[in-house]
UniProtKB/TrEMBL annotation:
InterPro entries: CoaB-like_sf, CoaBC, DNA/pantothenate-metab_flavo_C, Flavin_trans-like, Flavoprotein
EC numbers: 4.1.1.36, 6.3.2.5
Function: Catalyzes two sequential steps in the biosynthesis of coenzyme A. In the first step cysteine is conjugated to 4'-phosphopantothenate to form 4-phosphopantothenoylcysteine. In the second step the latter compound is decarboxylated to form 4'-phosphopantotheine.
Organism: Streptomyces halobius
Domain DNA/pantothenate metabolism flavoprotein C-terminal, chain residue ranges per copy: 193-403
Region called Phosphopantothenate--cysteine ligase, residue ranges: 198-412
Keyword flag Protein transport: no
Co-factor note (free text): Binds 1 FMN per subunit.
Name of the protein described by the UniProt record: Coenzyme A biosynthesis bifunctional protein CoaBC
Amino acid sequence: MDRPKVVLGVSGGIAAYKACELLRRLTETGHDVRVVPTAAALHFVGEATWSALSGHPAATEVWESVHEVPHVRIGQSADLVVVAPATADLLGKAAHGLADDLLTNTLLTARCPVIFAPAMHTEMWEHPATQENVATLRRRGAIVVEPAVGRLTGVDTGKGRFPDPAEIFELCRRVLRRSGRSRGAEAALAQDLTGRHVVVTAGGTREPLDPVRYLGNRSSGKQGYALAATAAARGARVTLIAGNTALPEPVGVDVVRVGTAAQLREAVLKAAADADAVVMAAAVADFRPAVYATGKIKKREGQEPDPVTLVRNPDILAELSAERARPGQLVVGFAAETDDVLANGRAKLARKGCDLLVVNEVGEHKAFGSAENEAVILATDGTETPVPYGPKEDLAETVWDLVVPRLPEHRP
């Protein structure tokens, strides 16, 4: 069987032991994995472990099996290279084209997608040298995921923690799927969002009535998260503004948490200032209670409750569409409808002024909370693109397929 060939590069950080979990997930799902650890990585996890988990001898030296020219062949034959963890030193070498060991040679010869999953102390990640190296790698089409925030080595806490191996695996799966390798095709991956900044909203807002109750909706955030993860797999820098969800954060995505429509509006306007595209997939409450009760509203025996007066929330989609933060910025809206779906969608597209509108029918067991979705994507040029019932990831791919050709020429 023609299995996707993955090179797992491991550099010398304490998080190397977590790469074992990533390796296990890759091998158990049918990927042919070759591990290339640096000399420093072997101080944390030995060669025997990598060989046992991958089913192949770990490639550690340029001078081993010289007749096979490993410093060239490993990269040439790969469908994906993922470096996890990627230290500051490794990122610097990759950005500057240095090749003093087998892993850095492999990175220079690879013509497939490359993912870096950094792990280091916060000060190292935030250093201007590291940030410039990351920007250089991203500009060239590599995917450098954002490290997580949490406990680091010793007592330190901050940004720089190795991302969840399950989420790195999911990113690898998405990248390979897009490149066609998981379907047996030989198509090369087009990182068509490389160098772009996209903003995606997801989940539902909650408008407080009193300290206990709120006005909300059924949105799970799954479609917005799929849009964010898919954009990251296509090379974008992604800001995900998430309402009330219970989903794990997609790897490689900056997540901003919000609760109410007003908070979401503030976060979106801030993030959209330098965004190439904004996709409003969140279910933003149209109304909020006019009065917030500072104490719990009590049930009184024999009395009916006072009516709840609602007021309109800001129309964030219309505001974004009318006042683009930068020339050529693309705005995508979502319309959840229960009847006259397309007619209502066409009217909303004209009213909101966005470039694309994803229209889907919602209701019990439809769209909200489901892993599947179906929709029709309406465009201002009159085209209508139906997306059949299937995984929300498929709808996300179609949205970006329509967004990319509508973006202005990329400016480095």
